[in-house]
Each structure stands twice: as structure tokens, then as C-alpha cells.
Amino acid sequence: MLWGISFDATPISGLVVEFIKTAKVFHERGHQVHLDLGYEVKADKGAFFRPYRDEADLLPDWVHLDRIEGVDRIPGYTPEFVTEVLAQVVQRGDERLLPAVQALSSRLAACILRTWQRLGVTAVLVENGTLPENITYTKALYQAIEQYGRWAGLGRFVLWRDHDLMWQSEPGTGKYGEFPYPHTVTPINSPHIQYVALHEQARRRTEQWAGPLDNIVVAPNTFSHSADARPGFRRHYGIPEHVPLIARCTRVIQQKRIDRDLHLVAALADRCEAHLFVAGDTAESPVERDRLTALAQELGVADRVVFGGWLAPHEVRAQGYSVRDLLATADLVSFLTSYDYESYGNPIGEAIAARVPYLATRYELYETVYGHRGFQAVLMDLAHGDLPTPSFVDEVAELLLDEGKRASMAEFNHRLGTEHFGRGRAEELARAVLPARTRMSVVLPVYNEAENLPTVLRSLYEQHGENGPLDHGLYEVVLVDNNSTDDTVAIARDFAERNPDLAIHVVSEPEQGVACARKAGMDFAAARAPVDPGRRFYLVSADADCQVDRKWLWELFSTMEANKAAIGVCDYYYEAAHFTKRPRLWEMIQRTLRCRAVTFALFGGFPDGKGFAVDREAYQKVGGVEIFYQLQGGRFVNHLSDDWDFGIRVRGSGEDIVYSPRSRVEINPRRVDHAIEEVITGRAYGSDGIIVMRDIRPRAAAGRDVDLTPEQAQQAWEFSIKDFTPKNTILPVLLTPSLLDDAAVIEFFTPSLAQRLGARIAEIKEEMRVLDFTPIHSYKTPSYRLYFEFAEEIFARLRATVGEDIGYPPPLPPAFDEVPAERFTEFVRYYCEDRESGEAHNYFGNGGVF
Fold this sequence. Notes:
Layout: E1 2-6, H1 14-28, E2 33-36, E3 63-65, H2 79-91, H3 98-119, E4 123-127, H4 135-152, E5 158-162, E6 193-197, H5 200-210, E7 216-218, H6 233-237, E8 245-249, H7 258-267, E9 275-279, H8 286-299, E10 305-307, H9 323-329, E11 332-335, H10 346-353, E12 358-361, H11 366-369, E13 378-380, H12 390-401, H13 403-421, H14 423-431, E14 440-446, H15 453-461, E15 464-465, E16 468-469, E17 475-481, H16 488-498, E18 504-508, H17 514-528, E19 538-542, E20 547-548, H18 552-563, E21 567-573, H19 583-603, E22 611-615, H20 616-621, E23 629-632, E24 635-638, H21 642-652, E25 657-666, H22 670-673, H23 676-680, E26 686-687, E27 690-691, H24 710-735, H25 743-749, H26 751-767, H27 775-778, H28 780-801, H29 824-833, H30 839-844
Parallel strand pairs: 1-2, 1-4, 2-3, 4-5, 5-6, 6-7, 8-9, 8-11, 9-10, 11-12, 12-13, 14-17, 14-19, 17-18, 21-25
Antiparallel strand pairs: 15-16, 19-22, 20-25, 21-22, 23-24, 26-27
Helix pairs in contact: 1-14, 3-4, 7-8, 10-13, 19-24, 24-28, 25-26, 26-28, 28-29
InterPro entries: Glyco_trans_1 (IPR001296), Glyco_trans_2-like (IPR001173), Glycosyltransf_2 (IPR050834), Nucleotide-diphossugar_trans (IPR029044)
Organism: Kutzneria albida DSM 43870
Protein name: Glycosyltransferase 2-like domain-containing protein
């Protein structure tokens, strides 16, 4: 949900119009949009605590007018107090009211925080919050942003855009004091805020005043008009169809110098019967309205001037007419403002977008915003007079009377405006805080990981991209606590509080088991990720006892983006320093990892919980991670191989898996250290067909100094390669036989072996087509069968490709000693399908611990 706050305290102003343009991007992506008009901010608009009336009629129907609850119940927070603070503290530098400002800002911040929490705000857009009309509210807003960002686990979720600043809004009056404006609330470096300056000069002046800001960008206002308009505008307001019409969209206040437009209409009288339409709130300054009405009478143009009141922004299709309708029938748009009163181009920008030529004064920032870009206009040089000069009137008359010139100027400006102020700029700006900007959720299951977690979180926080630290807005962390009894959760929350620029969500999963925790985290991330057409969102698995390389996430993300595969898998390695005293064990590990590098490059491999990514749509397509249960000792236990099982279902659905060799994860050596005897015998994760996660805390660390005997090393290798080969060399082509048509795969297998493998796979699939639909079993039996039938040839190819040290297939199970050669294939089937004894599982083991 997007929360907007305008510090202008008016229903329709340049601030509100710009908010609508940016908020529309959020709305189109499914966000609710709430807008606080800021009635409790500015004291000089007479709207403090006043209920909304018909203001919503001036806004799109997808904008919900709202305000912070409880502000009217804060003792001492009154319009009188706000006025006094502006006069005494900001303008005169009297600090006696500052303690009251601080106390009230804390109360205000609490109200803001409660409102945002109730609504579930995910993004905030602040319009003009730096202008010191109400430093109490600005202080409160900064406090609320920091508190809410930590509470909600959000990264950058605030766009803070300043349209007016002290040196741009009536600086001659001294209304906001003098530089360096000591009591104006300066922008702060916050991981939650993206500041927006509307041009380079504003950015430069802001940083000269406030100091360097980490997150400030230059982004001008944007404009996007549709061509359609409601007919009958002129008739409705009594303006003849044939006369030239000048439009002025502005606040009806003295600083806007509408009197210049009245003098211009009068001076044009002997050339053409030009009319003027002023779109603005005539009730804002009754004194100025009366002065202008009297001046129109005095100049004899009262019958050619229409004070039309508020018009809805052009985006709104309200009951009445909008700015869109006015500009569709106008011949010129005027902005003859004061020299020191900038409006950042709402009138001029609207004219450019609507293909209407404009005239303006050379106000202080005109060149900065428009002139230097080359826009064409009739400009009134204020150095030559305070009112329209004869030469200026001549230029305006010439333009009004030359339709071709007007059309040419308007078309030129429109093309230039599309380049500099097009709607794409608004989309770029909104993406800075749109939740959809987050492209990855890193799911981290944890159980009693207090010792390792700080290092793991730090490695995730310090991820790098191609050109430096990875933007923390690109990813988030979903930490799933699986019933930890140590300080795991406290450590995670403390890390999140100290590093609020990276969103860290802590969720819990009461059912014990890493598979259950991984599923809970991925389901959570998949459900909350916003849908952004054309942008893929990735669910990324990580393990809390492993450490990712600095570019792990970026390389995985880049590979997924480039290949558009459903799953991306990482490369894994052990740090050699952990095995310096165990060279035989190290050699066995490296053999397996070398085989893995070759086959994963060919086939893409299968996901491992230590590090893989899946496209959110593919995840949901197959129903997410499935928890498979087995019976162990008379009770149900969840199967450990959820990651493999999930990958099989994704690949079996016709999706691709890609290998990202430069996305690397260091495996914690405790996976080998904790029970080296079980590793050697192929029972590290279970036996007799039951695969479960065991607690692998470093209680057996003493084993790190003990190497394997030659016999143990050979036994460990045999279990490792028996586990590896069916899964990583046979299973990919079993699930995706078309891989056997790939030139690289054919080269690896040889044409003859590839052809015979393909034929045998087709036969086995036909034979087993309805025997078992459970993926964890449906892949095991045929993979084991194909292993036995083709082991000699496959090992020959591994020796040729990976190295001669791969050796030959381990000995067959003793059960085959008495099987006649001609019946070998028959008994292979019986052996591999015999799940009751678990013999096949025990033979192939689970050497995947390497």
C-alpha cells in the first residue's frame, strides 16, 4: 500500500498533481493508494482538523483520501502552535519552543506509526516535506520512517520529493529565515529514504546546505496526456468558439502574478479578442481574488476573463471539467509568475504534454528547468519591465494569429518533452521504492545457528554486483526459524535492526525439519512478492551453515535473467585449509566435485538447498516444495530430499534448469566432520530407504585431524560416485531425453551410447508409466536401473572427460553374484524396485554429503 503526504494542504496543487502521476505507477501494479492532503501540516490554509468534504471528487477514484489518526487528540498541537514555531523558531531563531517541538513530534510520530502499521504500508511518497512550514511534523515524519522501516523490515520505501525549498520559494520575503536555515529540518542519510531533486541546481544547493546525501537523484516532473477530452468546455463557461483562449492553471495568490495576464489580455484587444481562463481556487486568497476582479473591470476585460475555480487534474475523469479539457481547447498556456516563484513546470509541463504552446516569464529557474533543454516559447524578460511590454505583446499576438506556427512550436516541444519528462521517468522513480523492485527473496532455514548466523548474515549483506556492493533494494532475506532454542532469532532481529537497508523477515515453522522450513520460507516469499509484468521474481535457497561468495547472488541472478530458466543452481566447494591434515579425504571430495562441474555444465544439474534459485511462477506452477513423509520406527518423518524432489518436478514439467558456475557457496566442513564413519559407509543422511536430516553440530570436531585410510578413502569414493552418477549423469536425460540430441551431450556420451541410452529410457518409461507417481520414487528406480545397465560405459566417459582417477564402477551388490548374465537386466529391475528391504538405497547410499 502506498501512503502519500502532501505538505501543501490543498486538494489540488502542483504537489498533488505530481503525486497522482507517480502514484499511478503504484496503482497499476496493484497497490492501494492513500493520500493525506496535509491539512494538519500547514496552518495558513484554514483546514487544520477540518473533515474532508468534496475533495475526493477532484481526484481519481483509485486515490483514497486519508489522514493520520489521533493527531487531533495531541494536547498542544494546534494551528496556533505551528504558526508560532514558524515565526519564532524558523524565522527569528528563538529556540525556546524547541523542547515543545520535540515532545510533540514524538507524539505525532507515534500516531503516524500506528496508522501505517494498521494499513500495512509498503511505500511512502512525501511531497515537499523539507519546506519548514511545520518543522514539528517534519521531525515526526523522519522519526516514523525510521521506526516503521525497522518494524516492517523494509529497505528503501520512501520517496521524498521537494518541489519548493527555502531558496526557491519567496526567498525575498525572509519567510524561512536566512542561510544556513539553522532550524529547518535537514534531510538525513537514511537507508529508508530516496530523495528526489527536480533539477541539478536543487540537488547541488541541497547538498551544499545539508551535506552529502547517499540517496538523492535528479528527476524532473513527468507528464502524460491522453488526447481525448470532454466536449463543450467553451460553451459551458461562455467562451465563444472562435476567439483565442489563454489558459492559466495556478493558485490565485499574489505571487503568481495573474495581474500580468489581465494586462496582456487588455493589450491584445486591438489585435484579437483573446479570452483568459484562470483555473485555481478563488477562495484561497479572497483579497487577491477581489483585487484581480477589480483590475479586470478597470482594464475593461471583465467579460473576457473567467475565474473557473478548481479543475481536476487531467488524469481524472470527474463529473465536471478537468485540466485536460481546458488544455484541449486552449490556444496558449500562460505562466507569467514572479521572478522568485517557481512552480516546477506543472503549467508549462502540462502545456508541453498537451501539445499547446506556452508563454512564461524568465523567472529565476526557467533556464534550469526548461530553457537549457531548448524548449520554444514566448518569454517575458522581467529585466525590461514588471508588466507585459509592447514587444512581448506583439510576439504573443503573432503566435495567437498564426495557427501553423502554434502547431509547429507545440509539436517540437512535445517531442522534446517526451524525451525529458515522459511517463517513463515516473516509472523509473517509482521503481526506487516499489516492492516489485525487489527481485529476489533469499530463504534461510535456521535451527540453533547462533554460532554461525552472524557470519552468514554478514555474507548475505555484503553481496556485490558487477560494479560494487549490490543494491539492497534488489533482494531481501526470509529467515525461517525452525524451533531454535538458542539466540538464533535474537541475533537475526538485532542484525536486521542494525542494518535496516536490507529487508530481513523472520518467520517461524513449528514442524521440525529443514524441508518444512524451506517450504514455509518459499511459500511466504512467493505469496508476498508483488506481480510486476515482464519482471521475473526469484526465490533463492541458502543454508545457514554455509557461506556464500561475495558475488553469489549477483551471478545467480544474472544467469537466471540471461537464460530465463525455471531453476538456477550454484557451484559448491570446500575450503582446502580445513583438510590440510586429511589429504585422502580431500582427494575423494575433489573427485566428486570435478564430476559435478562437468555434468552440471552439460545438464544444468538439480537444486541443492545450499544454493539455488527458482522463478516464482515455476515454483507455483508445480505447487511449490512438497513435503514427502516416510515411516521410521513407527512414526512419520519428513524426507530430507525436498530440494531434489522439487527440481525433478520442475524439470519433469518441461522447464529448464541452468548451472551458474560463478555463483559459489562454501560448504561448512562440519557436514563431513560430524560423522566421518557414516560418510565412509554411505549412511550420512540415513539408511534402509529413510533419508532424514541429522543434527550436525561440530561436536565431533576432533575428527578434523584424522585422515582416512586408503581403504576408507576408496569406500568413501565409491559411495560418493554411486550416489552421484544416477542423480547427476542419468537422471537429467531420463527426465529430459531431448538433451541427448544436444551436440555437447552427444560428445560426452559418444553417439552410440547416447542413442542406446535414449532408446532404453523410452522402453523403461513405457514399462513403468503408471507404477508410481511420487517423484522421489519415480526417479530413483529407473535411474538405478540405468546405472547398472550402463555403468561401465558411463564411467569410461567420466574417465575420458574428468580424469583417469575416476576409475571404474564400484563392485556390484553381492546379490548379483548368482544371477546369470543373460538375466542381469531382469534382476536389476527387481533389485531397484525392492523398497521394502532398502537394499538398493543402502547400496547407492548418500554420498551427496560431498
